[in-house]
Each structure stands twice: as structure tokens, then as C-alpha cells.
Known about the structure:
Elements: H1 2-37, E1 41-56, E2 62-73, E3 80-87, E4 90-96
Antiparallel strand pairs: 1-2, 2-3, 3-4
Amino acid sequence: MIHILLIGLILFVLYFFSNALKAREIALRAAKFHCQKLELQMLDEYVALTAFWLKRNQQGKFQGWRSYAFEFSATGLERYHGQLIMLGSTIISIELEPYREE
């Protein structure tokens, strides 16, 4: 019986890790696209997970709520911070720090 629980736990951890990697990839693509659309340069080509919670979506189903941080530049000289919020695989919002334009 303990072996079945251990296998179930391992499978759950693998599923959670795979789901987290997919969500991170979606967030990275969305942040890059948002920066390109605003003619900004995304710095370091990464997003960093800053928070994770379980929240209900509009249908009442629990999904992972994730907050990612990233950095961008408008002029290439300064670094500014951005935040991207996801619920499941849906982008909820992308917020950028006020930045100086050339």
C-alpha cells in the first residue's frame, strides 16, 4: 500500500513540475510579445516566479495563480520591472513600472 502512495506522490510531483514549466514558457512568450508591441527591450530573456496560490476561476474550478517578474528597458540604459499574472494558462494582466522614453 505504501508503494502505491509513493508512486502517486511521485507522479503528482512530476505533473506539477511539468505544469509549472509550461506556465513559465507561456509567461515568457507573453512578456516578450508585450515588450515588442510597446517597442521595449526585454532584458535577460527570463521571467521569475514570485508567487503561487490556488484560486478559483470563473467556473469555480481551482487553478494555479502565478505571479512572474521580469525586467525591461526603454532606452537600453535603465532597468525597469514588470509583473505578469496568470490563472491557469490564461494571462490575467501585465503591468509595467513607469519608464522614461527617448
